[in-house]
Batch of 4 targets.
Target 1
Amino acid sequence: MFETLPERFRTYDLKADVRTLMILRQAIDKGLVKTLGDVYNVLKGIVVKDPEDMGPFTRAYYDYFLNIDIENGDTLSDAIARSETFRKWRDHKIEKNEIFKTLSDEEQINHFLDDVHLSQYDIKEIIAGRDIFDKNPGDKTDGDEESMDDIRERLLNKMADYSDMSLEELLDRLDEIAEQQKTKHSGGDHWIGTGGISPYGHGGAAKDGIRIGGTGGGKMARMVMNDRKFFPVDMDSIINDDNVDAALASLKGVIEDSAQEVLDVNNTIKNGLKRGGLFLPEIKNLSEQKLQVILLIDNGGYSMDPYVYVIRELFKKMKTRFAHDLETYYFHNTIYDRVYTDVRRRQPFMMDRLLSKDPNYKVFVIGDASMAPYELNRMSLRSYFRLKKKFKKVAWLNPEPEKYWHHTYTLNVIKQMIDMYPLTPRGIEKAVLEMNKKSK
Amino acid sequence: MADKTFWLGSDKYLCDRQLAQAFHISRTLGMPLLIEGEPGTGKTELPIQYARDLNLDLFVYPVGSKSNVEQFVARFDHVKYLRDSQIEILNAQREEKGLASKLTTGGRDPENLSDYVVNGPAVNAFKSPNSVLLIDEIDKAPREFPNDLLYALSHRKFILPESGEEIEVSEENMPAIIITSNREQELPTAFKGRCIYHYIHFPDADTMKGIVAKHFPKAETKVVDVALDVFYHLRNLGLERAPTTRELLNWLKYVKNFTTAEAIEKIEKLEGIGTLIKTQSDLEKIQKNILDPRDFQKRSTPN
């Protein structure tokens, strides 16, 4: 059942696969899923793996199960109000009880959300309820609250007849219906949207389902849709204040530490001899903390100006989190025989000295690699060549959008020597992944 | 049979509905619950309070940068093993020299390898049915740790080193496993995939009132209201390190020693703000933003 779910959820950039279905099925078998709201809760636990997934997840859920399409920048209320599902649901509500018409749009939507997320009726009811609803089309005239309850009572009693159907069977039907809704937009078969959610309100026969209690079931969903932090940052846009944290997250991957215990041979022998030949193994912690980063920043030329600040922010943040080696140097357009230790480029630092550093340093060069062809002379080429040769891990991060790269001659020359990545969170992530590959 | 009823918190602990739900799902499915969220939102409290409330055994594994799966599951104590196995020779030598005193192995028998297996919290939890296992701050662990954990957790089985003993737990007796993370490091996707995930949102003012009431049942509503007002105001300033629930509770602990009027005055004067604000730059920002602390007074007593 729900075979199409993983595929659909993946179009929202969520990680859903066969395992998702298996766990969902397990949850159903164990009685965790009794209502549509339960489906939301269980799936959330399985599919959402980051607060940023919450937004896309909520959208995917409303799309898949309720046929409500929440567009970018939509509030949940708008999307619901626009949807066919809601319209049908409301028509039914009004049909049943005229008073419902007098409620404001906002209140109606709240009711709708409560029905979706809170309703305590069984999924069995959704299916069975439809049949009964079809057979009892005349009950709508009575608006009196009390007699509505009576009717509901009666219907629930009748529903016992359906209880021999397995939940799975019913869900299968539900799934079919969801599919039908997709292909056939109108027509009377909007079970999930209309028959499913409306006719019996909170009359629930479900007893053990997990329920969101208390105040407003759609509260969470609404909160999610209104908050940018529940949506992924654009991993492909050039680093800015918004996604600098995401970039940092990928940069953290540079750390290579491991906790391994190894035999300390020297001490074992030394102490063993002292004990007159009783050798007790001495253990030492082997830890490799290799976050040694050299940062070479091109801060010359107007083209780089907009980026210098964020780049420094990025690495500053990194430095405060990890008190390891981070060395920053600056250059103008291209590297000749020296770089500079200060932003104004007054304090030269010779390349020879830089090249005498530990080869385990990871080197990030940040620059647009765009210069006049004559600037990239032999000396400069040689510097890049030596840099690449000396340090095992060198990556060039370019703030220029990747699609323009082929226009620049010097960029392409450099790119052939040093791996180049766009200066975006994703680009950094790639560079870091490449760096972390075990060196041959 | 492990307890699978829906747990909603105790008289000491207000469990967020969403969290309670995720916890319930994870226990029913026998999957670990991975909780992420801002520091100080009560991630660690859940298993502790749950175990206390239901009187279950709690096993904690605090993760550090040197954590490895051996410490978590079980390790073989090579040093003791070698020592004990050499003791016999030593004792013989001593006897030769006429020394009466003998070294002892403390009841351990080098023939029996399982005497030298030191069990970690994971094995202990798996051995006691219906217990609670907390893996605290997994984001502090070396990168391979979560992945190493995967196998053990998803197969509900550990194989002890050297002795080869297998510790297995049935699905029913699976301990409730709670893993917390402060998101200082991304966890591997495969690992997250094996867990039920829950992100704790920072509680809103109403929920916070409930939390405060659980901790300080006798606190004056007025004091709490004023304190929360200040607290959320501070949080909205966009500080580098926004104060969290834990810090709010500490602050209230400080002011509760005074009478209501005194307490309110102290809160409004931001006395004891050191419990809330932890960096110099934040402190400066607050001084810049809140020129007149009496603002709070005006807002909290509108008439």
Target 2
Amino acid sequence: MSLNDPMLYAYLLVILAGFLPTDVFRSAAVLFSRKIDEDGELLVFIRAVATALLAGVIARLVLAPTGDLAGVPLWIRLMTIVIGVAAYFLFRRSVLAGIITAEIAIVGGAVLFR
Amino acid sequence: MANPTPSGATPPPDAPEAPPRLWYLRGTIAALTSIQAVVLFSGFVGFGGLVRDIGFPLGAAILSTLIVWALPAQVLIVGGFAAGSPVAVVALAVGLSSARFFPMVASLLPVIRGRSGFWTQLASSHFVAVTAWVESFRLMPGVPVNARMPFFFGMSITFILESCIGTVIGFYLAASLPQALANGLIFLTPISFLLQLIRNSRDLIDRLALVFGLLLSPVFAQYGGQLDLLWIGLIGGGAAYAIGRRRRAKA
């Protein structure tokens, strides 16, 4: 399958790599709707793998952005993450406070240093 | 409107049943007035900005909001697109991340199904995502059992439509905002996901998986080839699981 056409590649990703593997689990749950144990060993393992996967993608979006964000120096992107996480813990585990603080940091950094 | 909107209090069990259409409307209103919807909306505005920055087509992004309806999976898709990962690799990654829908749907269905048939239940399962799941458990106690399905459809379809609008707004904002603000918009996705992962980590396994995933990412971006995403998940998640198990066995 040719991945040279970005349009085709994007739509194939959405349908084959997005819709199918997601709704398989939603539909399966309807078929076997007897309650399953959320802390069963297999699910704990799957959750660990999924968490690491998502963390990996997040890190890549920050470390190696492909678009305009690449114009913001790496150290500012990293500092923003540190500041955002610090604010999250400082404001009693508030996701919103962490996001707002990080946004101020990244926009300020972009204004001053890019 | 003749009927007052429910204030969240449990209606008397023998109240005359309102038509399903009214409960659909009430679900819509519940979605429009939910705080969670604001969080959801800003998440998709950020996604729209990210999509624009990566060069992912807007049509495919909107389609993903409609038919995938899981922001983590959608971030994996555009991340895979940016990295040029093979479709099968991204599918496996998305499958692993979407496996959590199995217990989510299985736990929500008994609450909302009422007298609805199999196909209605199957259709409703597509609309289950984190926000609708959380809001359902909060609001359903105030909804009569047989009105829950229409209420759920009204609420969750509104969530999806809001998110589609957010995706489009973010996409165009990324192009029209001053550069520094556009950078902030694009940064919304990684920082909010990171903080939510931190908040949702329940035990040592979760925390280790998060840290390993972050640390392994630059290593495998360099040496992992096309399968790097999977290596990060399997090695990072597998190591976290193994360490967590050993700690538990010793305790």
Target 3
Amino acid sequence: MSYIKLVDVTKKFGEVIAVNNLNFEIGEGECFSMLGPSGCGKTTTLRMIAGFEDIDDGEIYAGDKTLSSKKRGYYLPPEKRDFGMVFQAFAVWPHLSVYENVAFPLKLKKLKREEIVQRTNDALKHTNLLDAAKKSPADLSGGGKQRVALARALAINPKVMLLDEPLSSLDPHLREEMRFEIKDLQKHYGFAIVYVTHDQSEAMALSDRILVMKLGVVQQIDSPLKVYNEPANKFVFSFIGLSNFLNVSVSDKGIKTKDSGIVSYPKYPIDDALKTQKDIVLASRPSEIGFLSEGGIPGILKRKSFLGEIIDYAVDVNGAEIRIQKGRKEPGPNTGETCHLDFYHPHWYSCND
Amino acid sequence: MNIVKKPGLSITNIILFISIGILVIFVAFPVLLILFNAFFGGGTLNVKDIVSVVSNPETYQALLNSVFIASGTTLFSTIVGTFFAWLVTRTDLPFKGFMKIVFLVPFMLPSFIGAIAWKMLLNPRAGYINRFFMDTLGFSDPVFNIYSYLGMMLVETMYLFPFVFIQVSGALERMDPTLEESARISGAGLFTITRKITIPLVLPSVISGALLIMLYSMAHFGTVAVLGMEHGIFNIPTLIYEKIHASAGNFQSIRTATVLASVLIISAACIIWLQRKVLGSGKYQIIGGKSFRPVELKLRGLRYPLLFICLGYIAFTILLPTLTIFLVGGLKTYGLPFTMENLSLANYHFVLFEWQLTKDAIFNSVTLGFAAAVITMFAGVMISYVLVKMKVRGKGILEFLGVLPFSVPGSVIALGVILAWSGKFGINLYNTVWIILVAYIARYMAFSLQANKAALSQVHDSLMEAAQACGATMGQTLKDIVLPLVRPGMLSAFFLIFLPALRELTVSVMLYSPATRTLGVAIYTLNEDGETVYSAALAGIALIIIVLGQLFIKKVLGAKQQ
């Protein structure tokens, strides 16, 4: 069942369109990530859901409540939206203790004293902060501060939690740990998560669905597996992992690069729509390319680096660099040798993507 | 850095000794002399004597007045400064960028010139505003008497509130907006956020600015000298001045002056300590990472009324007094109405080109300011270099001495150099221009240290190590790497000293002789002697020099930054 709903949402900053005609729904208890490079409009979208930015067109709903509507000229301020939110720079208040930070939203709700105490302690317990309750958040580490921010956001038991790159100020090893903590909290409290990040592995690990954005336009909304295995276009493909692109021309018999013979690919047929274009792009992950003794697409090995468990090859194919990664025990060519590449899991995209 | 330790005097030790020497001779020695004279005046510690000096009604009243006027000024300035800072950073006030610059203008203007202008406007009998109300509108009594505690507080507030304004608007701008946004999403409205989050977070900045004003106002000479003295209202610096001037060298007067100065030194030290404590509490690291613009309060219907209030404030506190100075400076005789036939440029011509006294004053101020700025700039670079970059034993002493210039008010320095350089210790500079120069160096050392320390701490050690790794000697590294990088700091130190020194009054008024009047002293004494129109004309010229100087700096430093 969908809870948050965005309909034709558009946001402009002056002449620049930051978010263009956005439509999506987020279910109750779902973890939904918005992924994209900086400036793609993901944070702006989150801030429109939170209410910090008004919208220039469209409507945003939560449940049966309207949050923003351009048509009706309606806008509910952030303090009335009942969301929890966690920011990148922690944003815990240094003049209040950890306990007071977490109790702040509850006090504003004018709850009974016992209930405030009970719910604050509950939130502190689930974020492992009970021992630090009396401390100043300034004395906590980065991870500790972010836990305070999480506890404060979930104290009011919100139906939706808005997370704006909450882990990117943390050390890499802490980041992974906190991911699981957030997941555990979600399981316990059952809130939906709207998660903004530019880190694709973070999005994959956490989310039920991922939205990939570029320059304010949605590129794909799918499950992490689908986004990874079937990227909707060249941009999504390149953003989601290490990627190789090769310009090729198509004919009935198969494909060819500028210098190679025609290579046929009967097992992975090309979309009919793409077949009508003469030049298309072959996209492939480094782990999905093999070396053949002959045939395939020819290239010259430029560099071979031993990375421990894997070996990284850089092959020059008509001026394009193709990266290939193989296990350290698998055989491979040596630097300077001509090799033959087999793209055994290719993706085909139009040149214009 | 790997410096091989050599026994005896290394270059680093020599630099350290010179640095310590400069601070001891120019700052520590005069201050110690004051404290020594105050506490051990008769040879031994004599508490009874100090008590009798302090409990003398005249001294006691001056102490009270200093505290009272400073408290009022601090209160008003904090309210005004915080309000305007909030207005230009957190609301959608029109022309915010312009208003932000305009609110800093009072910083440039010397407050004793402002006091002279307000005397012309609000003198109970002859002030233009009072006359207008009584003659034209038929009021039976003057609307405001500027020769009052409230009058002095308000005049000081006009020129001091930027201390709070700068601190608070800076804190509000640097503050991470998500601190307020997270309160909003927690359910707090703008009023609650302001009360529970924003104000507590900027409170250290507010307090720090307020303490600066307290310190400045307690030791402030000009306004009280112009508006209080002839009506029997003295504060500490004006009483010190009175004691020194009334009784050239009389033992009891010097003693009273040193006791008063000691009170200033001690309260200044307390205030500086308190301010560092408030600002230093690392609890308030509120500068955040990536952030959007802070939430702006929509003033809606109040936008233009509030803009009007701001503009009105500027017009009343900056334009009106300045205009008064220039108009009075153009009058044939003070008291005549401002009509075309009464106004001319004759006075300006006279003080600029004909009158030896004023010509000398301008010349003295320019040369003194220039000399003090150059000397202090170079001394400051050297001392800051030792403080920031050198690892050498004995630096602790220098660090302690380095704080001293920040906490010694001008009137204290003037008294200190009189005690130190009047022949008692073999050198007599009294009544020469050199004693003013020595005092200026002590007074402005803090500015130079601040600017140069900031510039030097930007130069990371690795930049110098990289130069040495490339084969540069210590000397070459200093010349080719460090100096070019700290040059902006030196330049700003120069102007930070040169401009205030041009309009300086507090120090030079205690040290001048008929041949060594500075610009500030000339304006002040002419005004005291009733030469009001010449005083105003000279003040007008001083204002023009100050504004031109400020524009010049902006141009030079602005060009350097690009």
Target 4
Amino acid sequence: MSTGVLHTGHEVHPPSGWRRWLFTTNHKDIGILYLVFGFGMLLVGGSLAMLIRTELMRPTMAILSPEAYNQVITLHGLIMVFAAVMPITTGLANYLIPMMIGAPDMALPRLNNWGFWLLPAAAVTLVIPIVLKLIGIGNGAIDTGWTMYAPLSVQAGPGVDFAIFAIIMLGMSSLMSSINIIVTIFNLRTQGMTMMKMPIFVWSWLITAFLLIAVFPVFIGAVIMLFADRHLGTNFFNPAGGGDPILWQHLFWFFGHPEVYILFLPTAGILSHILATFSRKPMYGHRAQIYAYWAIGIMSVMVWAHHMFTSGLSVPVTLYFMYSTMAISVPVAVLFFCWIATMWRGSMTFETPMLFALGYIVLFGIGGLTGLALADAVADQQYHNSYFLVAHFHYALFGGPVMGIIAAAYYYLPKVTGYMYNERLGKWHFWLTVIGFNITFMPQFFLGIAGMPRRIPDYALQFASLNMMSSLGAFVLGSAQLLFVYNVIRTVRHAGAKATDRVWEGASGLEFTLSSPPPYHSFSVQPVVD
Amino acid sequence: MTPFKRLIAWPVVAAAGFFPVPVSASYPWNFPAPVTPIARETLHVHDIFLEIIVTIFLLVLSVFLYSIFRHRKSRGYPAAKFTKPRTPLQWALISIPFLILTFIDYVILGVPAYHAVLALANTHNSRMVVRITGSQWKWQYAYPGLGIKYISRLSTPEDQIDNEDPKGPHFLRQVNHPLVLPVNEKIRLLVTSDDVLHSWWVPAFGVKQTAVPGFLRSTWVNIDKPGVYRGQCASLCGIGHAFMPIVVVAKSQAGFQRWVAKEQTAEAEQVAETSVTMTKAALLAHGQKVFQNNCSVCHQATGLGIPGTFPPIAAGHPFQAAPQMTQAIQKRGFYKNGVIVIGPVANHIRIVLHGIPGTPMPAFASQLSDVDIAAVITYERNSFGNHTGDVVQPEEVRNARQEH
């Protein structure tokens, strides 16, 4: 196969030192950069969550002033969504997609490098106002909540401007990686890898990439409008000048709702791989899952205003968004069906990735089912902006995407490092995470139903006991993640047994035909899929 | 393929056996007891939802757990190979859960939800209107037909928040002047805001309405039980978001009429006060109260403000802030030698009345009376180390209002 030999006479060894990472155009190096950055920011966002729960442990102003509290909750949200989960899923895409489709690298390697290096700059831009405040400049980071609702975000301090620039950079980074992923998938599939044969993770990212390209430019436009309102005298969101604060909500949620699926879809893809591997059984409903992704992707851009049921929508608009939201439950149910049918009559073992995958199904299931309740426009009068909502989206976003990326990390860690992680520590990590998570967020459903709104640093006495419980759960959840950090570090340092090429008994896919760790250039001979 | 049929038979059989079971609304962690038609509707919908989602969850979980315990390698279970339904029968059986889900979405939940949406939007036939205006960080209530208008703000003492005093039973959920409404009457609530978004939420009423500046949003209540109902702002509105509670006192018709009469007398007295010339001591005493209630959240009880965000009132403490912020203040002749209150009195009155657009400084014209504004300006110009000696009389404020 003379046409299949892709790298002849090229340097196949990476340069050493910092140059390797700064100038790299290698998809695996860039993938690792994304993953290290993302998991690092996950810890930063998690630490902010610990500050929030410490403040809320008892009904008093404990460690944060109200202005500091608002900054902490805002940064927690922005970091978790944009700087942690999105980079991690992008890192998985970078690392895995070329290997899964039998490509030598991503199609646009330089763009790939640029896309990553915008991220640390964006993260610094987001948090630098805190440092500036410490030396007496400005009043700290953005404090409007991650939704940045106008007019509060028009009125707020310079932290908002920093956040606007950070979001523009993050958006550009996401758009670059999305374009890269689409081009790679369309052009670099190996011989025999038809679209419908593509691994489900690749499919999930293809839909995600289209979604990002569809909605992120809208958000970038919206933050530029916000910037113009703040500094250039426009009145997009200012009623006194003929604008409408609710316009911001429409623009934000036109992006913000698909964003939820942007976080969810790639981890749903990984989940299907993991379930099939540890059930030792082919994936159930590969085609059905692909169609479900399409349905979810298309519907997700048509339901945004269900975040705005209390903002004052007209009756027809309310009804439309309520019923269209309910429709999403069907394709999501298809995914659940396929996941459980993949397990059904398998020959299951329960290594750490499988445990996290099973936890994902249960926790994300709770998030999804409570989402069905939130779809009801009138009941939403009670749920909206209450702790019920907070609990719901943490079940949906931690229970789904975060559980998924942790599962993926354990699943691919032996492949990436060539060594096995410590299984016992992994199991401890899983159980402490799941127990801690439920103790943290289950009480929050009841707090919301009892009438506690979100984003408050101090609360009435009737909420005290459940908040205490939630905080204690959060400390368990938070400290459990240190086990993960330790486990990863010791694996990277080759403390475990050597991993085989296939790593897991039931694993399949082109990435498992390569050595562990894979060679610097993945396929020097193009593989053929039959 | 029998075991495979079992896979789909499980949820189908169990789901077919599902029918609504009455659930008591009174377990302690549910919504507060509803007192309006909408709240009852919401609780009803919530209860159905809960039954349905708990049922679905348990059904799927039991399939899931069954599989986990049965289909494991350690029990020597051999892996099957199926990847999709093969016979038409299997396709038909598989579609059943999805048909049930669609039925739940659009019939069991969708139909009551449709009626509830229409009911919530129907603000017609109300005999009374109350205007609710959110502002950082208090609620203004106005009864247009009755000539009553006042501000309702948190009355929990600072010491309880700072943990220096034991917390009262209604910690952070008590106000100086609650909204008073009659029972058994459909009341239309017009909700708006002076500054940023707020959200007026009283769980017992099932009402949560975002207050949008520049727009009137409309909702309604018809309370069927006298009592005190508490809630709070549900939309992040800045640093005082946690500290703008809502207290509604629902009274019988007769009780409400008595309250109206009392309020109207009080308003009349306040109007009469405006034409009286007050002593400096009286102005200072009243001004201190007004300052604590309205100004101290931002400018702080010490008058020192918060550097970078809220300018100080106190002399000798120049405002440390970005130039565009100090310029906005300077442009209004209000920022000289770094001391805020050294400037013309007329400017001071204008700023308190109309606020500074583009900054968090709100317009107090609609919130405070002439006496209040005169008193607080007198207080600010003669406290915190300021010794301007200026005394501002209510009449000056009234004149300033008219010149605008």
